Amino acid sequence: MPKNKKNKEKKRKEESHGLQTPKGMHDVLPADYLWWEKISKAAKDLAEFYCFNRLDTPVMEFLKLYEKGTGADTDIVQKEMYILKTKSGDTLALRPEFTPGIMRAYVQHSLSRLGQPQKLYSIGPVFRHDNPQAGRLRQFTQINMEVIGGQNDPIYDAQVIIYFNRLIDELKIKNVVLRMNSIGCKVCRPLYKRQLQNYYKNFEKKLCSDCVRRLKTNPLRLLDCKKEECQEFKAKAPSILDKLCASCTSHLKGVLEYLDEMGIAYQLDNLLVRGLDYYSRTVFEFFTEGNGSEAGAIAGGGRYDYLMESLGGRVTPATGGACSIERLMYVMKSQEVKPPQKLPKKVFFIHVGEMAKKKSLRIIETLRSAGISVAESLGRDSLKAQLKTADKEGIDLALILGQRELFEESIIVRDLRNSLQETVTLSKLVEEIRKRLRAQ
RNA sequence: GUGCCUAUAGUUUAGUGGUAAAACUCCAGUUUGUGGCACUGGCGUCGAGGGUUCAAUUCCCUCUAGGCACCCCA
C-alpha cells in the first residue's frame, strides 16, 4: 500500500474513535455496578469464609511469564495478548489470566515457606484481545482461586470446585452443569496423544482444515472440533478415561468421590479439554444450559502440577479455577434474576433562601458526623424542585431550613409519606431523626 | 483474525433524496416557603469520515462500535 494512502486510512481510523471506549472495553455504570458489586462481594465474602487469602498481582507482567506459563502455543498467548514495550525496552503483557502471575508471586515471596498449601484468591481485570460478543469482553474481571503447594491431593481439586458451586448457587444461577474430566499426566497423556494421532491419521483426508492442523500441533483439541464432518470420528475416538495411568485414575476417582460425598452432580465428559498447556489431570467447567447465548462456560479450571516447573521453579502441586464477573452478570440478567436494589436514602436536606443555603453544608455535616446519611440537592434553589427530587428518590424524611427556622435555630422535619411536619430545635435534631428512623 | 447483520434524542422505537417524530426519562416553568397528578416549554451536528447529487439522516465506499457464527474461552 502506498505510504500516503496508509496514513490517510490511519487518520480516518483515529477520527472515528471519538468519545467511546475501545472495542470490548466497557464502563461499569451505576446501574450495572449494583450487579457488579453483588457478584464481587459474594465472591469475596465466600472466599474469605472458605479461608482463602487475597493476593493481588500487577495487571502487567513480563511477556515471558505467559509464554512459559500459559503456553506459547495457546490461543491466548498467540493471538489474544496485549503486548507493549516500555521506554526502557522491557516487553510486558497485560495479564490474560491470573495463574502464572500468582505462581510467580508464590516463588518471588517464598510463600512455600508459609503453611502449605497456600489457598489464594484474586479479583481483578484481565485482558484478551478477542472478538467481543455479549458476555465476552476484552477487559473483564476474573475471580480466581488457587490452591498451591502441599500434597497432590484430590481433595484440593474438590475444594476449588465446591467454592464455585456454592458461588453459583448463592447467585441463584440456574441450569448449571458441571463437567469433569482428567487429561492425564506426563506418563499417560503422551501415550494417549499418540494413540489419538494414530487413530485420526486414518481419516486425515476427511478432516476439516483445523483438525488437520490440530493433528500435528495439539491433538487433544481434536476432541473439541464442532465441524460436522469431524463428529463421527470424534464419537469413535479412543477415550482418555480408558487410557489414564493408575495414579491418574485414582486421582480422578478421588475427586469424584469427594463431589459425590458433597452431593454435587457432575457429568463425566471425556471430550472436555482446556485451552491452556499447563493443565494436568483434573479439568472442570461449569456450563449453563439453554438456547443460544444463555449457554456457555461460566467457570472453569483444573490442576496444573507442572506449571511451576515450566516457569523454572520446583515441581509444586497446584489446582485452581476462575470465573468472570461480567459473564456471571450476563447469565444472571438473561435468566432474569431479580436485579439488586440500592437501599433508598432516608433523610433529605432542603434549604430555602441564600442564608439557609449558606448554613446547610454545616448542618448536614453535623448529621453525617452523627452517622446519619443525608441526601440533598443543594444546587437547586426552589423548594418545589428540591422536594420533587426528594420524592423521586423515595426519601422518608425531609429537613427544611428557611429564614424563619434559621432565626429560631430550628428546622422543619417533614415526613414525606404522610405529609405531616413539625418544627424541631436544631440542637435536638440528631436525637429526633434517630428516634424517627428507629420507629420504622 | 474471518464471515454475516445492525447503528435515528438518556431509553424503546417511527420515518423520509429537500437538515426529523412519538412514548417514557431528564431539565425549567405554571408567581410570592411545600413533593407525587396535570399543563407548557427545553434537550438530537439521524455513530464518524468521504463520495454521488442542485440537495444525503436516507444511495455508495471506508472506518468505528454493537450483535451473531467460526476460533477460543470467563
Helix and strand arrangement:
Layout: H1 3-17, H2 30-49, E1 53-54, E2 60-62, H3 63-71, H4 75-79, E3 83-85, E4 91-94, H5 99-108, E5 118-127, E6 139-148, H6 154-170, E7 176-182, H7 188-201, H8 209-217, H9 228-236, H10 240-243, H11 246-262, E8 267-268, E9 280-288, E10 296-303, H12 307-310, E11 318-324, H13 325-334, E12 347-351, H14 354-369, E13 374-376, H15 383-392, E14 397-401, H16 403-408, E15 410-415, E16 420-425, H17 429-438
Parallel strand pairs: 1-5, 7-8, 12-13, 12-14
Antiparallel strand pairs: 2-4, 3-4, 5-6, 6-11, 7-9, 9-10, 10-11, 14-15, 15-16
Helix pairs in contact: 2-6, 2-13, 3-5, 6-11
The chain binds one RNA strand of 74 nucleotides through α1, α4, β6, β10 and β11.
Q: What report would you give on this structure?
A:
It is elongated and about 95 Å long. The protein has 17 helices and 16 strands. It has helices at residues 3-17, 30-49, 63-71, 75-79, 99-108, 154-170, 188-201, 209-217, 228-236, 240-243, 246-262, 307-310, 325-334, 354-369, 383-392, 403-408, 429-438; strands at residues 53-54, 60-62, 83-85, 91-94, 118-127, 139-148, 176-182, 267-268, 280-288, 296-303, 318-324, 347-351, 374-376, 397-401, 410-415, 420-425. α2 (30-49) packs antiparallel against α6, α3 crosses α5 and α6 packs parallel to α11. The N and C termini lie far apart (73 Å). The protein has an 8-stranded mixed β-sheet, sandwiched between helices. The protein has a 5-stranded mixed β-sheet with strand order 13-12-14-15-16, sandwiched between helices. Strands 2-4-3 form a 3-stranded antiparallel β-sheet. α14 links the parallel β12 (347-351) and β13 (374-376). It is α+β, with helices and mostly antiparallel strands. It has 2 domains: 19-187 and 245-334, 2-Layer Sandwich (BirA Bifunctional Protein, domain 2); 347-438, Anticodon-binding domain (Rossmann fold), CATH 3.40.50. The chain binds one RNA strand of 74 nucleotides through α1, α4, β6, β10 and β11.
